[in-house]
Amino acid sequence: MAQPPILSWEGLGLQQGGRWLLSDLDLHIGPRDRIALIGRNGAGKTTLFKLIDTQVEPDKGLRKVKPGTRIVLLEQEPDFTGHATLMDWAMEGELPPALHEVEAIAGQLGIDMATPCAGASGGERRRAAIARALAQDPDLLLMDEPTNHLDLAAIDWLEDWLSRFKGAFVVISHDRTFLKRLTTTTLWLDRGSMRRKEVGFGGYEAWEEQVFAEEARNAERLDAKLKIEAHWLERGVTARRKRNQGRLEKLWQMRAVRAAMIGPQGAAKLQLAVQDDFKSKSVIVAENVNKSYGERRIIRDFSMRIQRGDRIGVVGANGTGKTTLLKLLTGEIQPDSGSVTIAKTLTGVMIDQQRSLMSPDKTVRQVLAEGGDWIDVGDSRKHVQGYLKEFLFDPSIVDAKVGTLSGGERSRLLLAREFARKSNLLVLDEPTNDLDLETLDLLQEVIADYDGTVLIVSHDRDFLDRTVTMTLGLDGSGRIDVVAGGYEDWVAQRRAARAGPPPTPPVSGRGERGGPTPQPPPASGRGSKKLTYKDQRDYELLPARIEELEAAIAKGEDILADPDLYARDPQRFATISQGIANARAEKDAAEERWLELAEAVEG
After folding, report:
1. How far apart, in whole angstroms, are the C-alpha atoms of residue 216 and residue 202?
2. Burial class of residue 2 in the structure, from the number of CB atoms within 10 Å of its CB (0-12 exposed, 13-18 middle, 19+ buried)
3. pLDDT digits over 244-291, tens only?
4. Torsion angle of alpha carbons 87, 88, 92, 95, nearest 10°?
5. What's the CA gap between 327 and 305, in Å, rounded?
6. Could you tell me the CA-to-CA distances from 287 to 276, 474, 479 in Å, in that order?
7. DSSP string spanning 118-168?
8. Contacts with 84 (C-beta within 8 Å, 6 or more apart), sequence order
9. Between 20 and 30 A from 177 (CA), which of 128, 435, 460, 523?
10. Dihedral angle at the C-alpha atoms of 406, 412, 414, 418, nearest 10 degrees?
11. Burial of 311 (0-12, 13-18, 19+ CB in 10 A)
């Protein structure tokens, strides 16, 4: 660490329920650290944040904080009780933020701080909490699941703000894309201890596998119990990821078939080959569907066939009509015109983001097996404790109250219960909220192995890219993009649509392989905006610069893939990590700049 830490803790320990939740941790946070805090649900991540923020007193350890350091905690579930409006809540506290700062950030996030707390949605409360936290100008920002309940536009805004943030931050998040883009250091809480590695989340999984492999080798010299535990660790992580690679290959094949069905005329033969079978497997058919509320058109001329086994992702900003579309497709509401035909054999299970079916007074056994020892899972019967292990629970929690579980554990329990029910349609509304990364891997597996059709509304970009065969993208105009693939495929299609069709090149312009050499559209002329000299230069040169940055990022990541680099040369490791982060920031800015210029050229 080049500069002295702004916060450090030596020998930190905390007991919980007669055991050490955290034991002898050493923690050091520098003034510009970008840290991902990783660990299973229940490992103590949120508790560590409360210790840093002095909301919880440790049982041992020496804490040192640089004088004047302002620490701000963005909680996962802030308490709005007793406040009339979101602004009243935001201005509470011994050192409230400046009113104009809260209003400025709230305006950029699109939240009205005069909204009553009692009627505020999860997304509105999350935006208000972000506005309050950022307006306090922290030196150290602690963020507990900051992207929960945010739509994609708000996540993009937060990522941009954090990329320019001058202080340090530590973040707990299930959003892999968010973590990969922003973090350069990883803290891993595991079984009461903490490991640190100067690598962003992009290198975490390889590091995790390396650690577990080393533990497995060490356990071979110990007793049988440890051997079994090490074997479980290795299988629970490394083998699962290998298995997931096979599932991803299958997912790509399904996407290719789907692309042929909705593709251009050139795919007509393949389309005809699959269409008859496709019609027979259709479970939901929407034809020329329109839906309005008042003067606002929510859904416009939407048609598609959803077949058995499809995994459909629904994305878009809050208010664009995602929930309305789900209700139309599941028959909960009827269209104003057009039709939605649902197969008579379709039986659905809905897992909503409010987790409304979980009663805190019930035991885990009551939730899963109505108080018994056995649970029917599809066509088989399983012992409730064995079924708990499949969902990464310690079987001993079988008689624990739901209210004693963490938010992530409650979400995992709900998934365990709902996936046991017989169904052929699964509707998931923000399923990734509160889940840890390992549970997300498990959820991806369960969805991949599910025989029925899945509809998913989610802001988690990585989760969608790993899970869905098709994406329905809503932009608020009523038009719905139907894209074969995941979130990134939808983004690529939108970029291509903004850039417009490629221009027809002159006959003499040939590339090395005999194809036409791409040419940028003219900088001025009919239907286009006259660019300044600087704009024209940027428009012409930025594509090459973006390619250079992509090559530099790939080269740096190849170097960091060396598992021994940090131990051998930590300074070089830190320099390359920072270089990659800088290159990514420059590449994102360059892409945005070029897209703006392309839109100006189109007029």
Report:
1. 23
2. exposed
3. 666 667 777 777 776 766 644 333 333 333 333 444 578 899 999 999
4. 50
5. 16
6. 18, 17, 14
7. GG--HHHHHHHHHHHHHHT--SEEEEESTTTT--HHHHHHHHHHHHT--SE
8. 116, 117
9. 128
10. 180
11. buried
Question: What is d(CA 457, CA 445) in angstroms, rounded to the nearest whole number?
Answer: 18
This prediction's pTM: 0.69
478 φ/ψ sector (left φ>0, alpha ψ -120 to 50, else beta): left
Distance CA 130, CA 145 (A): 11
Percent share of the chain, pLDDT over 70:
82
Q: Mean pLDDT throughout 96-109?
A: 92
**Domains, the chain, ranges and CATH?**
7-213 (3.40.50.300), 265-489 (3.40.50.300), 500-505+518-602 (1.10.287.380)
Tens digit of pLDDT for each residue in 488-518? 888 888 887 776 655 544 443 333 333 333 3
Between the CA of residue 155 and those of 130, 160, 459, 461, 602, what are the distances in Å?
11, 9, 8, 10, 28
What is the enclosing helix (H) or strand (E) of 234? helix 224-234
Q: What is the DSSP string of 435-472?
A: --HHHHHHHHHHHHH-SSEEEEE---HHHHHHH-SEEE
Half-sphere exposure for 188 (CA within 13 Å, toward CB): 20
C-alpha to C-alpha distances, 123 to 126, 149, 162, 599, nearest whole angstrom: 5, 5, 19, 31
User: Residue 61 corresponds to which tokens in the numbers above?
Assistant: 């350890």
Q: Which amino acid is at 551?
A: A
Distance between CA atoms of residues 544 and 311, nearest Å: 37
Strand partners of residue 355: none
Q: For 420-448, b where at least 16 C-beta lie within 10 A, e where not — what string?
A: beebbbbbbbbbbbbbbbbbbbbbbeebb
Would you state the structure tokens that stand for residue 524, as one six-digit string?
């001025």
DSSP 394-434: -GGGGGSBGGGS-HHHHHHHHHHHHHHS--SEEEEESTTTT
Q: State the sign of the Cα–Cα–Cα–Cα dihedral 565, 568, 574, 576.
A: negative
Strand partners, 471: 313, 483
